[in-house]
Design goal:
Blueprint (H helix, E strand, L loop, with lengths): L2 H27 L2 H22 L5 H20 L3 H16 L11 H13 L6 H11 L5 H7 L4 H17 L9 H23 L3 E2 L5 H17 L4 H14 L2 H4 L19 H17 L5 H14 L8 H14 L3 H15 L1 H11 L10 H12 L3 H14 L1 E2 H13 L4
Parallel strand pairs: 1-2
Helix pairs in contact: 1-2, 1-3, 1-5, 2-3, 3-4, 6-8, 6-9, 7-8, 9-10, 9-11, 10-11, 11-13, 11-14, 13-14, 14-15, 15-16, 16-17, 17-18, 18-19, 19-20
GO biological process, one term: DNA-templated transcription initiation
GO molecular function: DNA binding; sigma factor activity
Protein name: RNA polymerase sigma factor (Sigma-70 family)
């Protein structure tokens, strides 16, 4: 096996195991930055040793044991944490005698540690962009350059965000624990927000030459599925997973051969991934069986399910979508939700009824730079046979988006208005 093959294997192992290794170390050191340093040292040791000794039978356990040895060495040198040293040594001895089942994550300490790591990475004390970067680093196993590429952000900026985030968690003495009661609900909301932020950036790239960044979608889905297994009684977690599964099912149909976007109602539904759709619908069922009131992610998942269940665009249950958007707007008032609701209203009550709603939203300053407002308005004007006004709105929308593919589509739709 070549050195390249070994590096590829180690990289794959790291992506799978790093979160569990860091989570276990964070529980012991109570410092996420220190835990990541030890985990990185174990990774370096693997890169040095595995090409000669071969990949161990349980690489995750090997990485964990190696990292803990480094931790013990540090505490010995510093002689500042004698009790911690004894705990670590005892834990390491136990670890070496019994190989842990790292695939089990429901009732064992590894699963608990992962859940704690999710909550500390997504702590609301951190800015949203820092939460996303730290989560991808600690739970997704991505390097700083990979995160920078994913968000089209300079590497030094991402590095600073991660360093500041770890420093803040240490300085504020954020406990490495899963919150309980009312605090759990508040913190869980932050966790779901971060995961959906990562997914959305992958699904609707805000800038750049590509419409999507599929690896970000895959990372978010993986985090969501882990969280759903760790918190089986939280319907909003299943709702978010369902929403992401169903949206991800359309990935192949969303982009044409030359990378151009294809609108939802124009997609070839044979290209939708029906396995992901089934997984999404199953997640919705799991959420309903819990028996709690549905929240915003479950409502959005049910809207996505209305599209997924329709074999053709004409079969779409638009009245139910309007109903669900109305409930969603009542639960979490937002001009963006109202804009989406207006689109559904146009399919039920016609474009003029929807345009009246959109015109009312145009006075909301939060939508001043939101390119989908003029884009929706343009669609409605076109349906009302007002092509000149529609073209102006398409061009305005194109000027506001930073995504090259989306801009090209909007300009082409604007140009097509001339022939109407």
């Amino acid at each position: 096996m070549s050195a390249t093959d070994h590096h590829r294997i180690i990289e794959a192992v790291w992506r799978i195991e790093s979160a569990r290794v860091i989570a276990g170390l964070t529980r012991l050191t109570r410092d996420v930055g220190l835990a990541e340093d030890f985990a990185q040292e174990a990774l370096v040791a693997a890169l040095e040793q595995w090409p000669q000794s071969g990949v161990p039978e349980n690489p995750g356990a090997w990485l964990t044991a190696t990292a803990k040895r480094r931790a013990i060495d540090l505490f010995r040198r510093n002689a500042v944490a004698e009790r911690k040293h004894e705990d670590l040594a005892r834990d390491l001895a136990t670890l070496e005698q019994t190989v842990p089942d790292l695939n089990s994550n429901l009732d064992d300490p590894i699963g608990d540690d992962l859940l704690r790591l999710v909550f500390i990475s997504c702590h609301p004390i951190l800015p949203a962009e820092s939460r996303a970067a730290l989560t991808l680093r600690l739970l997704g196993g991505l390097t700083t350059p990979e995160i920078a590429r994913a968000f089209l952000t300079p590497e030094p900026t991402i590095a600073q965000r991660i360093v500041r985030a770890k420093r803040t968690l240490a300085e504020k003495h954020i406990p490495f624990e899963v919150p309980r009661g009312l605090e759990l609900a508040a913190r869980l909301s932050s966790v779901l927000e971060v995961i959906y932020l990562i997914f959305n950036e992958g699904y609707f790239a805000t800038a750049g030459d590509d419409l999507m960044r599929p690896t970000l979608c895959e990372d978010a889905l993986r985090l969501g599925r882990i969280l759903a297994e760790l918190t089986p009684d939280e319907p909003e977690v299943h709702g978010l997973v369902a929403l992401m599964e169903i949206q991800a099912s359309r990935t192949r149909a969303r982009i044409g051969l030359t990378g151009e976007p294809i609108l939802l109602l124009e997609q070839n539904r044979a290209h939708w991934d029906h396995l992901l759709i089934r997984r999404g619908l199953t997640a919705i069922d799991r959420a309903h069986k819990i028996g709690k009131p549905r929240g915003p992610y479950l409502l959005q998942a049910e809207i996505a399910a209305c599209h997924a269940r329709a074999r053709t665009p004409e079969e779409t249950d638009w009245p139910r979508i309007v109903f669900l958007y109305t409930e969603l707007a009542h639960l979490t008032p937002s001009p963006v939700i109202e804009l989406n609701r207006a689109v559904a209203v146009s399919m039920v009550h016609g474009p003029q009824a929807a345009l009246d709603l959109v015109e009312a939203l145009a006075t909301d300053p939060s939508l001043d730079r939101y390119h989908l407002l003029p884009s929706v308005r343009a669609d409605l004007l076109l349906k009302l046979n007002r092509p000149t006004e529609a073209r102006t709105q398409f061009e305005l929308a194109a000027a506001l988006t930073q995504n090259t593919r989306e801009r090209a589509l909007l300009l082409s739709r604007g140009a097509a208005c001339q022939t109407k």
